[in-house]
Specification:
The protein contains 18 helices and no strands. The protein has 469 residues and is mainly α. Helix 4 (39-65) packs antiparallel against helix 9 (144-155), helix 6 runs antiparallel to helix 16 and helix 9 packs parallel to helix 11. It folds into 2 domains: 37-217, Up-down Bundle (Growth Hormone, Chain: A); 239-432, Growth Hormone, Chain: A, CATH 1.20.1250. InterPro entries: MFS (IPR011701), MFS_trans_sf (IPR036259).
């Protein structure tokens, strides 16, 4: 390969073009991502999809609590959260029937249920109707957040995918910072129902923009990552969960989310409500900074998932140590913890996309999101138990243990990925693709017709046999 450019004159120009195309691009990261066609539409669609997630729960809480007790409103939010169980099913529908055929019917049901809830609350109707419409609204929540991550992987250049996922994670952090504040502002200045209206409107806007961003571009089927199938060649009922590396990755996502929410539970208990809320915002600031940094790094400098979780565990230990020291050190400790949050989200969703079998991209991302939600519940419960049983900072110690457990599970993910890649490589050698078999056949035909004496190869070395064409 080294001598192609200097030695080959005939057809050299064509070969030079091929070799030039294989060189890595000099541009990478956010600048290269921003120069891609349609980037602004993708960015607007992703931002709208994150705003929906950052607003819905708070909008539902404020809308119901305006006419009922706060305890009833909180219970409505808890019942509605059960609708998150449907997320993997919605992802499977996207993979099977396509984005447009799934999103519009789901959006119609979602808007209808939100409208019914708003009317029922306005008329002070039966509380069972509120519970039912809230549950249906969350079950029918358009999966635009999942679709935005799938869109970045479909539409971005390979060298820009990590930057795109980092940008997506930053948008999520911003939405959870500004979304609740926007709901509070709308509740005070417009109406308690206004937050739900804006949340549903952001879902509709995200649907329109994400479909426009992918117009004429369907899911890319990668033949090297065929769908996982069971006996008889039928698609396995468990979908992507049949893959052991993915199951380990979901465990990592659950443990990471549990550690994060244990810290969030501990901060208000340790520093007071007002200061605790500010410290949680510091976590978000650190997460945004960390996400932006990891999206700007070259590939060889990007830390792997186990390294990030180990760093998070050590940062939690440092936060527990400085928790009794002056507030400035506590802020620095929260910022340090936050620096590992954004990059870990990027690594989780990136690895999930890499592991997803062809045709299960949306479902795989949905399972990852479901594992994160489960981890949030586990972390909140573990943190509350530690606070009640010991002290507020004990919840930070629990977070460190959870992150360290995630580090161990992350090592299993890496080992399983290597084993799976090695198995696929061995399989491809035994059963090469048709194009490679045809090329090998043509080369064999050429060599079999060479004028070579028996028992001597073209270089004059002895051979055991000669096959005539």
């Amino acid at each position: 390969m080294v001598g192609w450019r200097g030695t080959s004159r005939r057809g050299g120009g064509k070969m030079d073009g091929v070799m030039a195309d294989q060189r890595p691009s000099a541009r990478y990261g956010y600048r290269s991502l921003g120069a891609e066609p349609g980037f602004r539409v993708r960015l607007a669609g992703a931002a709208a999809s994150k705003l929906q997630a950052g607003m819905f729960s708070f909008a539902l809480l404020y809308a119901v609590s305006a006419g009922r007790s706060y305890g009833v409103a909180a219970l409505v939010v808890a019942v509605a959260a059960l609708g998150g169980i449907a997320a993997p099913f919605r992802g499977r529908l996207l993979d099977r029937f396509g984005d447009r055929r799934v999103l519009w019917p789901i959006l119609t049901v979602h808007v209808g249920s939100v409208t019914a809830l708003s009317v029922n609350e306005g008329l002070n109707g039966p509380v069972l109707a509120t519970f039912g419409s809230a549950l249906v609204a969350n079950v029918s929540m358009p999966p635009v957040g999942v679709l935005s991550r799938v869109m970045w992987r479909r539409m971005s250049q390979p060298q820009n995918v990590r930057s795109a996922l980092a940008l997506d994670a930053v948008l999520t952090d911003l939405a959870f910072v500004f979304g609740p504040a926007l709901v509070g502002l709308l509740t005070e200045t417009v109406s308690p129902i206004a937050g739900l209206v804006v949340s549903s409107g952001s879902s509709a806007l995200a649907t329109v923009l994400l479909l426009r961003a992918q117009a004429g571009r369907g899911p890319v089927r990668d033949p090297s990552r065929g769908p996982e199938r069971g006996a008889g060649g039928a698609r396995h009922w468990a979908g992507p969960l049949v893959l052991a590396p993915l199951r380990w990755l979901l465990l990592v996502a659950c443990l990471f989310s549990a550690a994060l929410h244990a810290v969030q539970i501990a901060l208000p208990a340790a520093a007071g409500r007002s200061a605790g809320a500010a410290l949680v915002s510091v976590l978000s600031v650190g997460s945004i900074v960390g996400g932006l940094v990891v999206g700007a790094l070259r590939g060889r400098w990007v830390p792997r998932l186990p390294v990030l979780l180990l760093g998070l565990a050590l940062a939690c230990v440092a936060l527990a140590v400085v928790g009794r020291l002056p507030l400035g050190l506590l802020v620095a400790g929260c910022l340090l913890v936050g620096l590992f949050i954004g990059p870990t989200f990027v690594a989780l969703y990136g690895d999930a996309g890499d592991l997803a079998p062809s045709g299960t991209e949306a479902e795989t991302q949905s399972w990852t999101g479901a594992a994160i939600q489960l981890g949030a519940a586990v972390g909140a419960a573990a943190g509350a138990a530690a606070i009640e049983g010991w002290a507020p900072l004990a919840a930070v110690g629990v977070a460190a243990v959870l992150a360290l457990s995630g580090f161990g599970a992350g090592l299993r993910v890496v080992r399983a990925q290597r084993h799976r890649s090695r198995s696929r490589l061995d399989g491809s050698r035994k059963n090469p693709p048709p194009a490679e078999r045809d090329e090998a056949g043509r080369l064999s035909a050429v060599t079999n017709n060479l004028d070579v004496p028996p028992a001597v190869d073209p270089g004059g070395r002895g051979v055991s046999a000669r096959i005539k064409g």
